[in-house]
Amino acid sequence: YENFVAQELASHGHDLFYFSNRAQGELDFLIQKQNHVIPIEVKSGKDFERHNALSNVLSNPDYAISKAYVLCNGNFENRGKIIYAPIYMTMFIERKQPMQRQIFRIEMTALK
């Protein structure tokens, strides 16, 4: 599951980061949206509501995290700062920046 989420987030332009702290635990992914950090936990089992590291980070006022995602086998649900979403909804997590329109100009004068 984590590999799928990493590939999907990277394909949508997210830079992926990992968080590990001895006192607070490990988070699977961190992404940045504007000036905000959004933690993402990936859970494959039925106990997806148990996420000690995520709870520790969200309760730390120094981090000022406003929302987090738990990607799991459950249904979509929003509980406080945590958004629980089915794993297949990874593709809908906001992109870092919208893609800019690209303009291509082809030089064809040598083809005369």
What is Rg?
18 Å
Helix content: 10-25%
Can you tell me the residue ranges where pLDDT is under 50 for at least 5 consecutive residues?
none
Strand order of the largest sheet: 1-2-3-4-6-5
Net shape: elongated
> Approximately how much beta-strand content do the residues carry?
25-35%
Class from secondary-structure proportions? alpha/beta
Q: Give the beta-strand count.
A: 6
* Major β-sheet profile: 6 strands, mixed
Query: Total helix count?
Result: 2
Average pLDDT taken over every residue: 88
Distance between the termini: 55 Å
What kind of oligomer do you see?
single chain
Spell the H/E element sequence. Answer: HEEEHEEE
Protein model, in words:
The protein is of the alpha/beta class and 112 residues long. Helix content is 16%, strand content 30%. The protein is built from 2 helices and 6 strands, in the order αβββαβββ. It has helices spanning 2-11, 52-59; strands spanning 17-21, 25-33, 36-42, 68-72, 77-79, 82-86. It has a 6-stranded mixed sheet with strand order 1-2-3-4-6-5. Strand 5 and strand 6 (82-86) form a beta hairpin. It is elongated and about 70 Å long. The N and C termini lie far apart (55 Å).
Q: What labels describe this entry?
A:
2 helices, elongated, 30% strand, 6-stranded mixed sheet, alpha/beta, 112 residues, single chain
How is the topology of this model organized?
Blueprint: H1 2-11, E1 17-21, E2 25-33, E3 36-42, H2 52-59, E4 68-72, E5 77-79, E6 82-86
What's the short story on this structure?
The chain is built from two helices and six strands. The model has no long low-confidence stretch (mean pLDDT 88).
